Amino acid sequence: MKTVILTGLIGSGKSAVAKRLRKHGIPVYDSDSRTRRMYSRRPALVRRMEEALGLPLTMADGKLDRARLASVIFSSPEARETVETLVYPLVLQDFIRWREKQAGAPFVVLESAVILSKPFFDGLGDVVVLVTAPEEVRLRRVMARDKVGEDQVRRRMAAQFIPMDRVRLVLENDGTPEALSAAVERMFFDKNAYICKFLKEK
User: Could you read off the pLDDT of 103-114 as tens digits, one per residue?
Assistant: First the structure.
């Protein structure tokens, strides 16, 4: 099964692109939501994270305190690496199992902000699409979406990095929703578009 990696920095609009692809019947693996589901279904994983970090990460009801986890990993590169070492191999296994169930689709999409900068995912994917938008646009989007302050968003931005050597296509998302829809149509579904030809040749 051919795999398109859909990536972009926080606030770039990856999810908006993914939503439009789903409307066309393209299976999209949302790595963020799948990881959140993993936390809720694998309490042993959360316990291993607590042990590795030496910090409590659960609330009174035993569920993962996602706000606390985010605060820890976005303020400490060492803590982030520790969590990633535990979580990302499981995410990769989950994606491979999910992909095997998508028979009949022309291709699948793996949506992730971090995949290109993590060695756990080296070699995964046939083509990489980067969704971009100006920094100030991304900042406003995330502040409005997550109801958080500018400093917090900028810390999250500073923790992200996308190596460009694997990026094949760039999708600009600095306009209207209608403009984004048109751009998705041209990039993914125009029979003369590069991505269609590339996936057929693979």
Answer: 889 899 999 998
